[in-house]
Amino acid sequence: MEFIVNHNIFAKAISEVSRIAPNKSQHAASFGIMIKAEADGLEIIGCNLELMIKKKIPIQAGNNKVLQVLRSGKCVINSKYINEVVKKLPEDIHFILENNQSVIIQSGEVTVHMNAFDEIEFTHLDVLDSNFSINVNGKTLIEMFTQTAFAAANTNSRPVLTGVLMEINESGLTVGATNSNRLAVRKMPLDTTGRRTAIIPVSAVNECIKLMAAESGDVMVHFSDRQIVFQNPYISLTTRLIEGKYPEINGIIPSGSIMEIIMDKNRLRQGVERAAVLANESKNHTISLSVKEGALLKITSHSNEIGKIEESQHILSHKGEIDLSVAVDSQYLADTLKAIKEEQVLIRFGGTMKPILIQPVGSENQMHIISPVRVK
Predict the structure, then answer these.
(1) How far lies 210's CA from each of 16, 288, 295, 307, 318, in Å?
(2) How many Å apart are CA 131 and CA 173, to the nearest integer?
(3) H/E element holding 240?
(4) H helices within 73-201, ranges in order?
(5) Average pLDDT of the chain?
(6) Which DSSP state fits 328?
(7) Is the CATH number of domain 2-121 3.40.1650.10?
(8) What is the DSSP letter of 117?
(9) What mean pLDDT do residues 33-45 have?
(10) What's domain 254-370's superfamily in CATH?
(11) In the chain, where does DSSP find H-type helix?
(12) Cβ pair 158, 68 in contact under 8 A
């Protein structure tokens, strides 16, 4: 195997793939990534027991030739050291595999020799046959993941809650996540007659966001019984699915409210983040939201040891009861407001101890539910 490749493109691909390689294994090759050189480009593969990433480097990128494959072949090489070495090289890279056992990497006046490993010991996630596929806009899919994945649980007490739900039916595509105290949901229309439900590990969703956030074009999503694959022309991410039954999302969404207010999103977020300075001293990061005479929203936090923060913000629009006070987790509320890109938010209150529903004004496709905190 022998090729000459653009330094920046190769370094970026190696970095993206290397970060999921296992850091503990009995076999040296399991610490590695696989590099394949073929006539139409390079394929760089990283894998652990749960996740596999394939990154494609084509011969041409736009009008520029970024790769020249002189001899086809493949090898496995230590992911940590190839990543550290490549990103420090000065210019384009001449990569040579000799006798399937050693690699020579040349860049300018620098020459690096590294051992290659037996492909048989390389950790590899077997890809099952897909039995259902959809095609979605990549930018929209990443936005849906970004606006929901943060709400997943970060402990394994209920494994399904550490995943992100992806549900397809005649109504379209729904993506949702919950840790039982908060819920984030995003929906979009989808032209399909099939039905499918998958629970994706949040770690895989976050990798998908990192890999594809800057990509344009459509993404093919392939489903099998135990895996899901996200694929565009240059990136493929395969992950195992979480087994189990996800909570019924529609059953979590409150059906009524006693008060609705509309707030300036950015101003509210800044107020919540200010109050969180003291709220972070409490177990549930608790702040108080109090509506006064339907005109002002008062945001309050306090610490017995440090002091108190209090501010009032004008309510842009109000319906229903005129006075109400609710205690919430400031981090949950700040995360929610960060996930909404619109300038105004609608907040629906069901009562002092009822869940709060938050939506961007003018959109029914995104909603967030936050359970109140019980204050002694």
Answers:
(1) 9, 35, 41, 39, 39
(2) 17
(3) strand 235-240
(4) 79-87, 138-146
(5) 92
(6) E
(7) no
(8) B
(9) 95
(10) DNA Polymerase III, subunit A, domain 2 (3.10.150.10)
(11) 7-18, 79-87, 138-146, 202-212, 249-252, 265-279, 330-339
(12) no
Instruction: Return the higher-pLDDT residue of 65 and 364.
Output: 65
Where residue 26 falls among pLDDT bands split at 50, 70, 90? Answer: very low
Cα radius of gyration (the chain): 25
Range 132-251 classified under CATH 3.20.20.210: no
pTM confidence score: 0.92
The token pair that represents 159 in the structure block: 């494994």
Residues of the chain with CATH 3.10.150.10: 2-121, 132-251, 254-370
Best CA proximity match to 278, nearest among 311, 305, 313, 312: 305
Picking from 138, 196, 187, 192, the residue whose alpha carbon sits closest to that of residue 168 is: 196
Sheet with 102-107, side-by-side order of all strands: 67-71, 2-5, 93-98, 102-107, 110-115
